[in-house]
UniProtKB/TrEMBL annotation, chain A:
GO BP annotations, alphabetical order: mitochondrial respiratory chain complex I assembly
Broad class of the protein's primary localization: mitochondrion
Subcellular location: Mitochondrion inner membrane
Species of the source: Acanthochromis polyacanthus (spiny chromis)
Cofactor(s), by name: FAD
Keyword line: Electron transport, FAD, Flavoprotein, Membrane, Mitochondrion, Mitochondrion inner membrane, Oxidoreductase, Respiratory chain, Transmembrane, Transmembrane helix, Transport
Protein name: FAD-dependent oxidoreductase domain-containing protein 1
Claim: Flavoprotein is one of the keywords in the record: yes
SUPFAM superfamilies: FAD/NAD(P)-binding domain
Domain FAD dependent oxidoreductase: 88-473
TrEMBL record, chain B:
Pfam families: LRR_6
Record's protein name: Distal membrane-arm assembly complex protein 2
Protein family per UniProt: Belongs to the ATP synthase subunit s family.
InterPro entries on file: Leu-rich_rpt, LRR_dom_sf
Superkingdom of origin organism: Eukaryota
Organism: Acanthochromis polyacanthus (spiny chromis)
Self-association state and partner proteins as the record states: Interacts with incompletely assembled mitochondrial NADH:ubiquinone oxidoreductase complex (complex I).
Signal peptide: none
Function: Required for the assembly of the mitochondrial NADH:ubiquinone oxidoreductase complex (complex I). Involved in the assembly of the distal region of complex I.
Record SUPFAM superfamilies: RNI-like
Amino acid sequence: MSAWRLRVKLRSATGLLVSTRPTQRHTSPYGPLTLCRSLSTGSHLRNEFFKDLEAQLAAFRKKAADALPGSSWSPLQINPNLPPERADIVIVGGGVLGWSIAYWLKQKEMVRGGVRVLVVEKDPTYSQASTVLSAGGIRQQFSLLENIHLSLASADFMRNINEHLGVLNEDPVDLQFNQSGYLFLASEEVAHIMEENYSTQRYAGAKVSLLSPTQLKQKFPWLNTDGVVLASYGLENEGWFDPWTLLNAFRRKAISMGVIQCCGEVTGLLPPSDTKTEKLNILTKKPRVQMPNSLEYQPVECAIVVNAAGAFSGKLTEMLGIGSGPKDSIAGIPLPVEPRKRYVYVVHCPDGPGLDSPFLIDYSGVYFRREGLGGNYIAGVSPEEAEEPDTSNLEVDYQFFEEKVWPCLAHRVPAFEKLKVTSAWAGFYDYNTFDQNGIIGIHPLINNMYLATGFSGHGLQHSPAVGRAVAELILDGNFKTIDLSNFSFRRILTQEPMLEINIV
Amino acid sequence: MSAPLTSLHRCCQRSALLLHVARQRWSSSSASPPPLHTRLLLFLTQRFYDVEMLLSWRSQLTRNQLQKKNAYYGYTQRFYGLDLASAYFILSLKGGFRFAGQSEWFYADQKGKFSWDFLNHKDTLLEEVDMSYTVINYRGLCNLEGQRSLRTLKLRGCPEVDDWLLARLHVFQDSLEDLDISHCPRITTGGLAALRNLKGLKRLDVSSLPGILSPGLVIILLEEMLPQCQITATGYDYSLNDAQGEEEEEHMQRQR
């Protein structure tokens, strides 16, 4: 190698000498001010040849190295972006939940390289993903014990996020967590529900306090306490953060631990090639990952598929025929997760609530929170069942703000009568039409598909804890830290909803 | 008279600790390349699993030591009561405190030695706590949670005090009057929003917080949030030097 380089240097040195001579010979007789370019084509070609020599010799060396044994060259041009042919666990969906599961799987494996995890995400720009379009809040004010525990565990995780997701020699993770708390307002009819929830929350260890209207007025003078009988205020572990940072932190750490990332869409599930397994597990199939904008696909042989596709999880189970069986059988019950569009409006109000404004949720469903320090706020409301917007695109309906959001907002906070909508966006909820709570566990028919979807708006805040729970389910066989067996698919078969009273 | 001298002495020595922490935190934003041994370690880490594991073990060890220092003093609480346990915790972290009704401060010196006289005052609540330049963190604060009559809390220059600890201060919301969180490198604006619960606060010191990006605006918003509180915020550069420098550069470019 070095001998070649030496020869190349000598050649180029001689080349240089050769190239300068023609220019000296062909200088214009009229002096240095005229064009010094040589007019001979032969010398031009010779210059080009010697300049290309370096590049050609490098290409020759590369070809020789590839031809020698030990190189990874093959005459078949394979797309380098294809996923590997075999993996242990394929996670469909690269949102915060998918990457959280991938991280925890790698965290819990006992040996280095114990599980081969592949995360398949169809859109690397995350343009329609619920994670990055979410308002990013975390609260413990739920009515189900499991949800409260999940939120507490996730808050614990985020408090020590650099311990968990810190990568050696990289910048520490800064979630930009605003410790501002949630404020729920209750009217006369629902005050008793709020009191019950308060006792459940305190029992579970959440730091929540109840406020009367007078106390509310004292604490938040900008609030109009008309019609408010009771308020529930989170003191600790509640607030909002940047979901994109959390997603990237999970991703960076998981990739540093060896998770393979693939950009592609799972367009089908093929039967396994091995006939032996076909007899044992009838519905064990391997996902067929299709490359974006092309017909190329790669079937991935795997042991376990995790459905963390969020709003699009229903489509994945449809591919397996779940929901298209006879009506009375288990195969006839589809996964009740569908995308629901929700609008979030960014408004600017110069005289609005200051640094102490919490994430306020009115009993009518309207919510708002402060965004940054410049008098900007984020507001929205969940539409009624009958008025659900069309989910084929993410276009925003500003009329909805004027009709449904602004009146309630202005009634609740008088300063918001003078506001201006600066922008808005829409995102999908992975809405569980059955009871608006997550579905976590194995599907009864497909014995290698784990579901972790259907969180209907609080997937992001539960993602670290749910990721850990699913990893425990896969690797340990059972839930170890938080028992989420109440969230299994079974409740859909037995038609026993786990309803939560406090959904936004 | 000796108390202010000792605190001054500790101040000077702890500034070295803070500088070191600040350098670690903002290493990515520094313009100069890291020193040779750091670059060598980085080179080796990217090529050998063993070096990577050794370095991660080292960081894990420092973290474990920190958590041990901030552990919950359960046994002390059981045998000596809440207040003496809190007092002992403060002294083991090299802080200082003053009992309610007493006028003398109990301090631990540089080497961690302290007098055991505080054991004489059983069941007396703590009124003022000075944990400046100690390594107290969120976990350590649970040792102080029982002190419902705490009036003064000084957390000046603590490298491990972050937003989550500030959010936890809501347990002192009735009694806390004086809070000093200046020079803490890990506090950001989100944590300052958590101070909204301390409605009884009379004096707040938020000087020289490197984590706050627009200090002028944040101080104004804090003053609006806590109207009865007197806020001290020194050590911030409110000058327009950067803007002037940019204008000059534009002018030079136009001339060219």
